[in-house]
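Handout, section B. The chain below has 189 residues.
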Amino acid sequence: MKRSLLLWLTPFLVTTGAFAASEGKILRPADKSAVSSGDVDIVATAPGGRLELDGKPIAAEQPFPNVFHAKLKVPPGEHKLALLSAGGSQEIRFYSGPEAPAGFTPFHQHPPVAGVECTQCHELTRRGRFHFKGGESCFPCHQKDGFAKVHSHAPDVLAECGLCHNAHGSTAKAHLLFAKETACKQCHN
C-alpha cells in the first residue's frame, strides 16, 4: 500500500517541488508566513547552496551536508528569503512583527520547543545524505495512541508523514502541506 501511494503521488510531488531536493528547498519559514517576533529560524537544503535575506548573504551553519540553519533577528516588515544554488533558486516572502498584512498567515514552527536536535528526526545515510528517519521518530514527542484517533491510515502509511505534513512548520493546521480537504483528496476521492 505504501509503495502504491508513493507511486500515485509522485507526479503531484514532482510538480509541486516536493522532490526538488537536488535543486534545493526552503523548509522553514513557509512562503507568505508571518512571525510575530523578529526571531526567525531558517532551515533549508541544497547542494552547494547559499542563503540571502533581502538581497544580503546570511551566515548559516551547515550542521550536515547540504543543510543550512540560521537563527536571525529581523526588523519588522516584509522580507524576501532566497536559497541560491547551482541547481536553481527558490524565494519566499515572510512578514515579521505584529498585525501581519493580508496575504500573510501565522507560521507555527515545528518542533515547537527549544532543544530538539535535527538528529531526533533525521539521520545520515551510508551515502552521506541527510534524511528523515521515519514515522517512529515522531513518537518520543507525540502520543502514538492519539494518532489512531486522528488518522484513519495503517501504521505503514503514517510512517510517510511527510506526504501530508511539513515537519519543519506550516501556516496550516496540523502542519499540513495543503488544506485538509486538498490533502485527503491526493489519495482519496
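Note. Residues 1-21 have pLDDT under 50 and may be disordered. Compare this with the example in section A.
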